[in-house]
Amino acid sequence: MNDAPVRTESDGDFNLIALMDAASCFILSTTLVSVSAPEPSKMEAKRLLKEGQAHKQQLPKTLFVPSDQPAKLLTAEAERQGITVIRVPDDQLLPFVGEARDGFKERFGGASIQ
User: What confidence tier does 110 reach under pLDDT thresholds 50, 70, 90?
Assistant: First the structure.
């Protein structure tokens, strides 16, 4: 969701990962991942999918993941749960995530979070 790391005073810099419903562009779940971590952990991946399932009362059939983002653990967890994972270039996801990214950037920009 973010172009630049989200800075916190107490815990360092993070990237915001979001699980979004492509049909409605509704954000189902988010998690902050330390910039020092290469990708969301297995636990974070499970939580993202579980929270997404709670909103829709079902798991997604397909998960689109930006091809330039490391997501081995998220991909593995999704596939373990029977979800088809498709890696796509980031620019192909912009019609779905662009507005949310712009809103996040407008709200948080490069500012620090307490």
Answer: low
The reply to whether 1 falls in a domain is no
Q: What is the count of structural domains for the chain?
A: 1
Q: Is residue 54 assigned to a domain? A: yes
| Domain range enclosing 89 | 6-113
3-state secondary structure labels for all residues of 54-75? HHHCCCCCEEEEECCCCCHHHH
Contact between 48 and 42 (Cβ < 8 Å): no
pTM: 0.81
CB 83 within 8 A of CB 53: no
Q: Which amino acid is at 21?
A: D
Give the count of beta carbons closer than 10 Å to the beta carbon of residue 99.
Answer: 11
